[in-house]
Amino acid sequence: MERTRDEVALRALRLLGVVASDEPATADQAQGALMVLDSVWAEVRDEAQATWDIATGVPQEAFVPLANLLAAEMAGEYATPAPMTRPRAKLRLLAVIRKAEPRDCCDVDPCADYGAGARVVIVGNSTSDVWNDGGTW
């Protein structure tokens, strides 16, 4: 079941302790949270290449990560601690949006630099990770 923008905004306000679990948000609180949500979503949508949009519904698996990101973004406005840091909340949301695609173990470029000086070396029919200087991970 998909969730609405209003539900995401309310969840973020509850995470911050601005709204109690048994009460609705005021019109001003809801409007402010929705404005920030639209801004945060515009940032994440393009970066993550999302195939869905919050205007039509938020998938269940993205509901909590998106609410956490919204809460992290709004925490300063309410002078309250965020449930998690903004970078962590954003990474959690990106992980949900960009599900890892399965890769063939041999789908590597032996000449590519995969970060931190590491390269994938193909030995026979298997791959192993080694440092450029020959040391293993």
Structure description:
With 137 residues, the chain is mainly α. It folds into 2 domains: 5-97, no CATH class; 102-137, no CATH class. Helix content is 44%, strand content 9%. It has helices at residues 5-15, 27-48, 60-74, 86-97, and strands at residues 118-123, 126-131. Strands 1-2 form a two-stranded antiparallel ribbon. Helix 1 packs across helix 2 (27-48), helix 1 packs across helix 3 and helix 3 runs antiparallel to helix 4. The radius of gyration is 20 Å and the shape is globular. The relative contact order is 0.13. Residues 126-131 have low confidence and may be disordered.
Q: How would you characterize the largest beta sheet?
A: 2 strands, antiparallel
Shape: globular
Query: Reading side by side through the largest sheet, how are the strands ordered?
Result: 1-2
Task: Give the low-pLDDT segments.
Answer: 126-131
Q: What attributes does this structure have?
A:
9% strand; 2 domains; two-stranded antiparallel sheet; globular; mainly alpha
